[in-house]
Specification:
Elements: H1 6-21, H2 26-41, E1 45-53, E2 56-63, E3 74-76, H3 80-88, E4 92-94, E5 116-124, E6 127-136, H4 144-163, H5 173-176, E7 181-184, E8 186-189, E9 192-199, H6 214-240, H7 244-257, H8 260-271, H9 276-293, H10 297-318, E10 332-336, H11 341-347, E11 353-356, H12 364-371, E12 376-378, H13 383-386, E13 392-396, E14 401-404, H14 408-430, E15 436-437, E16 443-450, H15 457-462, E17 467-471, H16 473-477, H17 485-499, E18 504-507, H18 535-540, H19 542-556, E19 561-565, H20 571-591, E20 599-605, H21 615-620, E21 623-626, H22 628-635, H23 643-646, H24 654-670, E22 673-676, H25 684-692, E23 697-700, H26 702-712, H27 717-729, H28 736-746
Parallel strand pairs: 9-10, 10-11, 11-12, 16-17, 16-23, 17-18, 18-19, 19-20, 20-21, 21-22
Antiparallel strand pairs: 1-2, 1-6, 2-3, 4-5, 5-6, 7-14, 8-12, 9-13, 13-14, 15-16
The structure holds phosphoenolpyruvate (PEP) and magnesium ion.
């Protein structure tokens, strides 16, 4: 079989360019392309199949098959050889198509006469657009060069599709970006929002897929790669003085930028007639298709690095920066594959919502989104390829659903939902300055959880009595290197200033498990949630804890200070941590610094073991706060980050509720101040039940204070307690049904 030469490919591309430049309608242009390709490849047939909708392909043009089949023949993804190419994103090359697994005979096309089949995906940056096929009568396998040549044609087609170059009557592609799309992801942060899509990394538009002068394109590529390498070297230089881990990551990045294979493959594509940017994109598409199939998380991350480098290279080549000149809409919904917490903070509260293709509930971005109370949907399919800047978009953080370019019925229903939310907000605002006092006169103190400076204004607007949990790790997570003591103390001082005399409970660094600092060596632990985390790290490596305690003492500068140690599992851990505080205090005294007017030291009760600690522990702590998120995961042995098991066990399950009630009773007996600061504190029904079993202080997200207060003011907690006691006594697994029934009757 004759080898296909580079010059043949180039000739084909040149002819394609002429075909594209002709002033003809889309269908005629498609027909031209199939004719040229079949001719150049020496095959009887060349056909273009395009996606009609998410899972249907349509024959849109053909040379060699029955013309009547065009726009008639349709296939499901996965069906027949064409459907298999579409599903896997991989070429199929066979000398005997009718015998190949999955072959489907379509009489209207007359294709049974053809023995060899070569199909390649038409895709653009991982987005599947269709399949390009050549077939011939003689039974032959296509050579690697021929496959490559057809892939290059598919690449050019993909670019044309993106530009709408051949979109005519009945064509599928432009419609794809105009149709409503619903993407089902999962909840990252509750709430509904509507606005217009703002792509974190807008797609670079490649307008010239075919080279006019290959040598000039090779030169452009070489120049751009040089510029890329210089910028990576500069990044590396900047990181040299910083953290070792970060440096190593960047070194891997540099290795990719210098990879000969990467450059060679792009040069080859130019040799075959593509422009420099089209060559980069072709390589990127292949890498993305590979990325989708790689199971190994580490390898996927490396492919991610490569993808990132390709984006940089494209930006250098096209001169299109991160900001393509498009204006950010007034109501932006950020759409991104993933985003770091620092970048998210840069956008700040200007965002109405966030949709991520990746991300996880425990990711840093999710933590920041939650802190900023911005609705967030994660795992949202391939939203970055579906969405275009400025698209109308609705996000439902409660259900984890995104509607892109919604039709009027969906948009109207959504407007109702948002209006109801607004009404509820008004109701909450009207009780902001009133106490959370139940009908029976019982008062519940409502505090808020915080972690960023940006949270502090909510102290005033939500009507919270104070900050019941200040998660100090957020400040560590959003940085690239360990913050200095002076920075921390300035920050804590600003927090105290902003709190204006209201109590702030600073929780010392709670890292480990899902919260991994980018500049700390990750521990390869089989069970990080049960591993070396929080106070365990603090006590084993006391340097950071001492620095943080000092920063807190300095920040207080004589004002009252409240500190809480996380994840205490036994009495001695608390006494050891407290001893560190005593040392820090002694040091401050020696240095002549002001000592806090009052100093309260508490612990979080997040492991069942602590509920059974000796009485003296309960007497020694100044207060306890139940970290319900962790306590529940250990009580039920159900990972809080694992969607499959997380929702399986109800907080209102009798075993858990009676366990919490026992803790309440112990604290009453020992006179220990107790509060509850897990997510359940912010859920009105759960909060009501906690109040009913005797909890008098709750700490929650600022947005939950209104709904919880509204609930408290409508009920008699004494009566609710009777309902709970009766349900418990009757052997129910959960008190929820009885409680819900009672609430329905009462309100
Ligand atoms: C908890 O575990 O309930 C808690 C409040 O701490 P975090 O969610 O930060 O682990
Ligand atoms: Mg916890």
């Amino acid at each position: 079989m004759p080898e296909r030469t580079e010059s043949e490919s180039r000739k084909l591309l040149r002819r394609l360019r002429h075909a594209m430049a002709e002033d003809i309608a889309g269908q005629a242009r498609l027909n031209n392309i199939t004719e040229l390709t079949a001719d150049s490849m020496g095959t009887e047939v060349c056909s273009i199949y395009l996606f009609r909708d998410e899972d249907t392909l349509e024959l849109c043009a053909t040379e060699g098959l029955q013309p009547e089949a065009v726009h008639e023949t349709r296939l499901r993804v996965g069906e027949g050889l064409v459907g298999r190419v579409a599903r896997t994103g991989q070429p199929i090359n066979t000398a005997n198509a009718p015998a190949a697994p999955g072959f489907r005979y379509m009489p209207e096309t007359g294709e049974e006469r053809y023995s060899s089949f070569l199909g390649v995906p038409i895709q653009r940056l991982g987005q599947k657009l269709g399949v390009l096929v050549v077939q011939s009568k003689d039974a032959r396998e296509f050579s690697a060069d021929e496959i490559y040549a057809l892939e290059v044609v598919a690449m050019v087609l993909a670019e044309m599709a993106e530009l709408g170059a051949f979109v005519g009557e009945g064509a599928a592609l432009r419609a794809r970006h105009q149709q409503p799309v619903m993407v089902r992801g999962s909840t990252g942060q509750e709430g509904a929002a509507q606005g217009h899509a703002w792509l974190h990394e807008p797609r670079v538009v490649v307008t010239n897929p075919i080279a006019e002068d290959s040598q000039a394109e090779l030169d452009r590529l070489a120049e751009a790669v040089d510029a890329l390498r210089i910028s990576v070297d500069q990044m590396l230089e900047g990181a040299r003085t910083g953290d070792k881990e970060q440096f190593q990551v960047l070194e891997a990045y540099r290795m990719f930028a210098n990879s000969k294979g990467w450059l060679r493959r792009m040069e080859e594509a130019i040799g075959r007639g593509l422009s420099a940017e089209a060559a980069v994109e072709k390589e990127q598409s292949t890498a993305r298709a590979r990325m989708a199939q790689v199971g190994d998380a580490y390898l996927r991350d490396r492919l991610h690095d490569l993808d990132d480098l390709s984006n940089r290279l494209l930006r250098i080549l096209t001169g299109q920066g991160n900001h393509t000149g498009a204006e950010m809409p007034a109501d932006p919904i950020l759409v991104a594959r993933n985003i770091g917490p620092g970048e998210l903070l840069d956008y700040g509260r200007s965002l109405k919502g966030i949709v991520l293709e990746e991300g996880s509930v425990g990711s840093h971005a999710a933590i920041v989104a939650r802190a900023l109370a911005i609705p967030l949907v994660i795992h949202a399919g391939n939203i970055t390829t579906e969405a275009l800047n400025g698209d109308h978009i609705l996000i439902d953080g409660d259900q984890g659903i995104v509607h892109l370019r919604p039709d009027e019925t969906v948009a109207a229903a959504f407007r109702d939902k948002i209006a109801m939310q607004a009404q509820a907000q008004e109701r909450y605002a009207s009780i902001r300055d009133k106490p959370a006092e139940a009908l029976c006169g019982t008062r519940i103190a409502l505090h808020m959880n915080a972690g960023l400076m940006a949270d502090l204004p909510s102290l005033e607007s939500s009507g919270a009595e104070g900050v019941g949990l200040f998660r100090t790790e957020l400040q560590f997570l959003v940085r690239n290197q360990m913050p200095r003591r002076s920075e921390l103390s300035a920050l804590y001082a600003r927090v105290l200033d902003a709190a204006n005399g209201k109590r702030v409970v600073f929780r010392t660094l709670d890292i480990g498990s899902d919260k991994v600092l980018p500049y700390m060596k990750p521990n390869d632990e089989p069970n990080p949630a049960l591993g070396w985390r929080a106070i365990r790290v603090g006590l084993d490596k006391p340097g950071v804890m001492r620095m943080q305690l000092q920063a807190l003492l300095r920040a207080a500068d004589g004002r009252p200070l409240t500190v809480m140690f996380p994840f205490v599992a036994q009495y001695e851990e608390f006494t050891a941590a407290k001893a560190e505080m005593d040392k820090a205090l002694a040091r401050e005294r020696i240095l002549g610094h002001a000592i806090p007017e009052t100093l309260e030291i508490g612990a979080m009760l997040e492991t069942p073991s602590l509920a059974f600690a000796p009485d003296r522990f309960f007497r020694e702590v100044d207060f306890l706060s139940i970290g319900g998120n962790d306590l529940k995961q250990f009580f039920f042995a159900a990972d809080r980050e694992n969607e499959r098991v997380r929702k399986r066990y109800d907080t209102l399950n009798v075993s858990f509720l009676s366990f919490v009630r026992d803790i309440v009773r112990r604290c009453e007996k020992t006179g220990t101040e107790l509060s509850f600061c897990g997510e359940d504190a912010g859920r009105p029904v759960e909060a009501a039940c906690l109040a009913a079993i005797g909890m008098r202080s709750l700490s929650m997200r600022p947005a939950s204070i209104g709904p919880v207060k509204h609930m408290m003011r409508r009920i008699d907690v004494g009566k609710l307690n009777e309902v709970i006691e009766t349900a418990m006594a009757s052997g129910d697994q959960s008190v929820r049904p009885a409680v819900m029934e009672w609430l329905r009757r009462e309100s």
